[in-house]
Amino acid sequence: MNAERAGWYADPHDQAQLRYWNGSAWTEHRSPKHGGPTPAQDGPTGRWYFVITLASLGLLAAVPFFHAASRLDRPQTRKVGTAIAAVSIVGFVLIGLSPTDEAGDPTGWLSSLGAVLMMSVMLVASLLLFGLRREVYRPSSTAAPLPATPPSGNQGAMATVEQARRRRDEARKLAATDPMMARELGIGRPDVELGYDDGGLLDLNTATPAQLSTVCGLPPAVAHEVVTARSSLGRFLVVEDAIVYGQVGEEHAPTLRDRGLVITDR
Length: 266
What we know:
Structural class: mainly alpha
């Protein structure tokens, strides 16, 4: 599957269900679809691929391949189209160079060879176009699933948690590779609304006791101890500094590790 946004999509293995895509892989969270199946959408079917191939007796058989190569951005398909075009042109030229009989029809071995080439082009192109047409006009649901309305209840709640985790991971990676951008986006700053969703991270070097309690679930006394430790050190270099020097117990440390963030200059 391509890099689609996290959300609920049609399960590629069971069209009667929805399955949650976390942005990089399918999860095990599933839910039945609500309502009947989505009606098929009318649109191009790609039958013209076969019409132009057969009606031109193979002379224009390369056209569908060039069209498909452009739609799928696939250079290999363009090479196949070029080869088919070359063979069909050779066959057409051989027929044109053949002597004719009294009725004006091509005759001789040149015309026979040209006819064989043209028939081969039509046959091979038609066989290849069966699969190619499906890729162009009927993309697989696993490659680009259609978004569906997220279900509510437990499945929706779990999906929300997974999505927040994924966003925190993405924000941490961005902060590690480009701390300046992270600061400009307000990552870890719930008091700054700049439109970037970091999944609920908190910058431990700017956090207030109230934010530590609200976001990381620290008791007020522990939150104040963390801020006091930061003032003594000057700043935290890693999240573990807040846990060790702030004397955060193991009952609160996992949440602080999950939500806490330290943005360091490179």
